[in-house]
Predict the 3D structure of the following.
Amino acid sequence: MRFFSPSHGQAERNLADQKKIDLQTRTESSLKGLVLLAVLSLFWGLGWPAMKVTLAEVRPWTFRAVCLMASGSALLALARSGGNRLRVPPEDLGPLILTSVINITGWHILSAHGVAAMQAGRAAIVAYTMPLWAIILSRLILKEDITAPRLWALAVGFVGLALLLGPDLQKVGAAPAGVIFMLGAAFCWAAGTVLVKFFRWHMPAALVMGWQLLIGGIPIVMGALLLDPLTALGDISLKAAAAFVYLIAGPMIFCHWAFFVVVQMFPANVAALSTLSIPVIGVFSSALLLGEALSLYELIALCLVVVALALTSLGKRP
């Protein structure tokens, strides 16, 4: 019996067809990633004015308690549906508690008080000085070198921060607590990020984030029960309720999930560069939706902070 095999030309055509399919798959995947990047940047940016609207009627402790419990539970449910076990390895428990308190409890309660005490756009600019603090802490904790681009990022970013806060002493003096809260929040975010990188984890990143939200939310839930009345959510307008639902479903649940997907699809520096648009969207959406005034100082400071964010991403490896 004679066996027939495809001709050389047919094999080449099959290989070409397979390459076309692979290229189409990669193109569709990249397009999906770019759409996710655009949507999560938009949702996170719009979260700043939405937070201001919600905090006008909901106390910060109650606001953050509901956000963290809902989003943490949702992320763990998504991780479980993906086949991951929810068990925390014993060696991860200590680092998880430490990073949760700093990265979640510290950031969320300080930023909530900060946004409540100052303009949402201005708060967004101060918050995104986080990479500058992370550069300093990375040098101290991770022993990472401060490269030339990062040194420039520090210089440019702190000039922007000084320009934002220095010449406008009247506004800062009228709400010094807001600035202090937001600087503290940015520092907690940076410290938590560096510590997450410092520890060696034995579970997927999605589980780390989900458990961080729940564990970090426990002190905030206790604070809400002690400091806020039980009727804290009983008298909330439709506008504030809609903003509250948007914050939980969009920035807290969808954006965390989308960012995990994006990090898996693109190099880390590409994912990091996607955050450049968030403070810009936060500033201009706050001006558009809330009528917050934009001064020349704020616009220049915003540009400098965005440039500093770009410089921190230069030279990062995937």
